[in-house]
Amino acid sequence: RGMQVINTVFGGSLYQDINVQYADKKPMCHSQNEERSVTTQTASVVTDSLLYSIVNCNTLPINSIHHQAVKRIADGFRAVAFADDGICEAIESLYYPILGVQWHPEHLSEADAAGEHFDNPHRKIFGWLVDEAKIFSRAKRIHHSSYVIDSHCDTPMFFHYPQVNIVENDKLWVDPADFGEKDEPPLLYEIKVDARKMRQGRVDAVFMVAYIPQSTPADETYGKADRLLNTIITQAKGSGNRISIATSYAELCNNKRNGIPTVFLGIENGCALAGNLDNIDYFYRLGVRYITLCHNGDNLLCDSAMQSLDTHNGLSEFGRQVVLKMNAVGMMVDVSHVGEKSFWDTVALSTKPIIASHSCCKALRNHPRNLTDEQIRAIARSGGVVQICLYKHFLADTDVATVADAVRHIKHVVELVGVDYVGIGSDFDGGGEIAGATSENQLINITKALIKEGFD
């Protein structure tokens, strides 16, 4: 019943009794009297499926011992094998390594008369499962021996819901109007980043940012950032060491040794400085380790990649002072969201490495928020990194972006400048979410996909 359970758990439905509910289709006998090692039916396999790539045949002799069957296929799955009467005999996930078959391959996996089993298609299904387990095991070892950091998440955006915290969350009802989405009904939402999900995904650290919308009144930007950052700090201090704030590499190392997920602090949108350079010192002492110079729309620092009016023709004079001050105190300059002229002004001015905390490659997806190849090379020359964003509109011009799309962008950066200059800035809880990696506990799926591409 494994396939039926998979389909039901993910929201599909079943025929409770084939002979009753499928009677008008004149069903075959799906409860054979023969031994389970005897094949009594044939399944037709869809040729562009994962199952076909495993068994390497489009018709497969099977046994049949069931009176229920999959009816409506769960979202995110597809039917990939059928009996002669149309009953679904196999389903697979579109985005995860999940495969369910209705027959019992464990009884059809014996070696042939010569003692060989390499060409037994049923045995190959178990071989695929073992290979997937080996890849997952390898991914876990990589995460254990490395420092795995997600450089951008927007979880504090949800702090106006009092139950939201950085340790562990239940699903909650949210009003899209709270985030500027009008005429949308409330939705049941699951916070994508917290300590529990970080442990599940074997992620050592995340940069949680205080995001300040460009529409925030100028006299409220500093206070809003301060409140959000202090909420993160207060929650971490009250977590009983279930999560910890860090301000340095040494503190990250110590947290990892002790099995404690780490939060670094950031600010998204330099308007949080409220035009005062001294606020850089304050935020640095508070623990902030990068500021994204702007968001969507020009601010006092620079022109944006989105909704720009070319207010400053790049960095403003105040923006130049900000970059130099950030260099002086040891705070990273983040150029995600900045316009191209602002970008090149920053590159020319900064004496320290610059980062793009959550951006993608314009060569693969022509979006104004994405970076050109020359920009990527410039970041690498500075000693900085390009952190690939898991926002579907930056990754692909399709309705659904997947882990494969994220891997394409990662590989593009690697091919341009090398593996040392690329990472992941998920943008979880700020719009980031792709099929196959929808939250922090699934970030390891990107590692698995990279292993399959030859990274090790």
Task: Give a verbal description of the structure.
- With 456 residues, the chain is an alpha/beta fold.
- The protein folds into two domains: 2-107 and 120-136, 3-Layer(aba) Sandwich (Rossmann fold); 137-452, TIM Barrel.
- It is 32% helix and 17% strand.
- It is built from 14 helices and 18 strands.
- Strands 8, 11, 12, 13, 14, 15, 16, 17 and 18 form a nine-stranded parallel beta sheet that branches. The chain has a five-stranded antiparallel beta sheet with strand order 3-2-5-6-7. A two-stranded antiparallel sheet has the order 1-4.
- Strand 6 and strand 7 form a beta hairpin.
- Helix 13 packs across helix 14.
- It is elongated and about 80 Å long.
- The two termini are 36 Å apart.
- The model has no long low-confidence stretch (mean pLDDT 96).
Which residues form runs of ≥5 with pLDDT under 50? none
CATH architectural group of the largest domain: Alpha-Beta Barrel
- Class based on secondary structure composition and strand pairing: alpha/beta
Main sheet makeup = 9 strands, parallel
Strand content: 15-25%
CATH class assignment of the largest domain: Alpha Beta
Q: Mean pLDDT, rounded to whole units?
A: 96
List how many beta strands DSSP finds.
Answer: 18
Fold-level CATH name of the largest domain: TIM Barrel
3D shape = elongated
Tally of helical runs: 14
Radius of gyration: 26 Å
Summed up, the domain count is 2
What is the straight-line distance between the termini?
36 Å
Q: Can you say what the CATH homologous superfamily of the largest domain is?
A: Metal-dependent hydrolases
**Helix content estimate:** 25-40%
